[in-house]
Amino acid sequence: MRVLAVLILFLLAAPAAFAEVGATCGGIAGVTCGDGEFCKFTPEATCGAGDQSGVCAKKPDFCTLQYDPVCGCDGKTYSNACHAHTAGQNVAHKGFCPGTEIVPPVK
């Protein structure tokens, strides 16, 4: 029992695992990406559901003002996929999310 308590304390004290751009993220291990990055999933991965893995990608520095609404994996509507990625979100599907308004672009 004491060994189990020590193991739990060690796991809680260990720093979180951060992956670099291009590295695998998400998945059953829940690996997160570093600052300025997000875990980009393929469209087939349905926003990382079911312990799907993605790849760490750099958040865009800027986006065009093209209006092509998408529903982010967070359930918010963005003016285009680039703005969703800037917010660290993947695109769940094209078009508006049900019952939402468009999120203003990140400045």
TrEMBL record:
Gene3D superfamilies: 3.30.60.30. Pfam families: Kazal_1 (PF00050). It comes from the Bacteria. Residues 50-99 form the Kazal-like domain. Residues 1-19 form the signal peptide. Keywords: Signal. Coiled coil: none annotated. InterPro entries: Kazal_dom, Kazal_dom_sf. This is Kazal-like domain-containing protein. It comes from Roseibium aggregatum.
